[in-house]
Amino acid sequence: MSMNLSKLGHFKLFDNKGFFEPKTFMLMGEEPWKDFKSGKEIGVKLNLIIWSDQSDYGDPSVNNTGKPVVVKIANQTPDASVTPHLVRLINPQATIYGDYQNQLSVKADGFKNVKEDA
Predict the structure, then answer these.
(1) Alpha carbon of 81 to those of 28, 30, 32, 47: distances in Å?
(2) Sign of the CA dihedral 85, 86, 91, 96?
(3) What percent of the chain stands above pLDDT 70?
């Protein structure tokens, strides 16, 4: 007998602290975050690169350094003159999605700049 239950993805928890804490991100740019239906600007999308990744994936050959990440921050205006610099996210929250469960939708309360030697 096959069990076809609905909305099981709602019960899968993502370890935000475990994923984001051992990473540093390079902010590459910002763009407006627009509501899909209305087209109204509702915040900013940060275009980030994982600059350093000290996560333990259970396999030493796995590392996400250099991978792009888009982070949405509500009620913030994009800065068109961003120069690349290191940042840490404030209260990031992610949801896994996609056919292979290998994509993240990320929102955060904001970000703070990090010194190069940190």
Answers:
(1) 10, 9, 13, 13
(2) positive
(3) 93
DSSP 36-84: TTT--EEEEEEEEEEEEE----SSTT---TT-EEEEEEET----TT---
55, burial (CB in 10 Å: exposed 0-12, middle 13-18, buried 19+): middle
Instruction: Report the 10 Å Cβ neighbour count for 14.
Output: 14
Confidence band, pLDDT 50/70/90 cuts, at residue 3? low
3-class state of residue 113 by DSSP: strand
- Please enumerate in sequence order all residues whose Cβ is within 8 A of that of 115, keeping only pairs 6 or more positions apart, or say none: 86
User: For the segment 66-78, what is each residue's pLDDT rounded down to a tens digit?
Assistant: 999 999 999 999 9
Report pLDDT for 98: 83
What band does 118 get if pLDDT is binned at 50, 70 and 90? very low
Structure tokens at 101: 């469960």
Identify the residue with better confidence: 55 or 98: 55
Single out the residue of 53, 46, 43 nearest to residue 28, CA to CA.
46
